[in-house]
Amino acid sequence: MDVERFLLRIKQLGIETVVGVPDSTLKQFCAFVNQSSGYSHFVAPNEGAAVGIAAGVYLSTGKPTCVYMQNSGLGNTVNPVTSLAHREIYDIPMLFVIGWRGEPGSKDEPQHKFMGLITEEILELSEIDHAIISRETNESELNQVFAKASSCLHENRQFAIVVRRDTFAGAMNINYSNDYTLVRERVIAKILNHVSKEDIIISTTGKISREVYERISPERRGQAFLTVGGMGHASMIAFGIARNMEDRKVYCLDGDGAILMHMGSLAFLAKENPRNLVHICLNNDAHESVGGMPTGAVGVDYYRIAQACGYPHVFRVSTEEELNVVLTEVKGLNGLCFLEVLVALSSRADLGRPKESAIENRINFMKYHGVIK
User: Cα 68–70–75 angle (5° rounding)?
Assistant: First the structure.
């Protein structure tokens, strides 16, 4: 399906604003809307915020907004959809374009399995009419989908187009890069070299966890909890562990997009001040794991935000020499630390994935750290 024609149909619904969180299933969609001047486009910090922006656009223009996301982000939209947009509350129309990961019967990553199973059910419970499109959807069928969408929007209702994988044609790339030179996988290798065997490692969703898995030795893989789902929550998992294992150093390897998604965690962590937590932000100013779209906060100094929140020890590095010095220093510090590492937007084409299931990772982690036998 030609993505430019698909977006033209969206514009014909009277939609001029597109907002959302990038998704690999929607890579061509994201690339086109990011490069096109025909739309007012915003990359939101999370999917719930995208719904809020859509509500604000409607309140100020009377026009609906297109909100795009991966279906994993549906959970973030439930509150603003059901308590703001629903027809029984403020009655605000919007069009959702949702990439369907974990579709029943398809092969996908484990974190998508359950959400893929209940995607349609969530939409139905939220009283959002929807249609599914794929590469097999013909012109007549697509006409019916958009006719239904138009009807819903005119009735001030929401409508969702659920997009199967490989629906959109073309190899359009998101032409975005940064000026940072550190290679993230090498940075992760250096961090792992500074971590002792007794320390705890928590890594965030996406390529960061995949690179941790590749770089950690097989006998120490149980040392790391790979947060393959729940984007933005790795630091809270790390906090829960740090509070109950205060004799261990806990290293949380986070991403800038993940921190941005739930930034209130920084204020919470600073207030609680777990003295054994090292919070590391690997910042490439992009959502690399889902195609490389720039985040909605390119150029933000995360270390300054952590400092303003009250982290007692804050650092930022952009070279290997600086990284080595700071990693040595934080290892000896007794206090909450935040380290922002500026990294290039790149990864190996042959980057592997964990061979163990998510449950096996959880069990191995708990066994390694003596929680269970």
Answer: 100
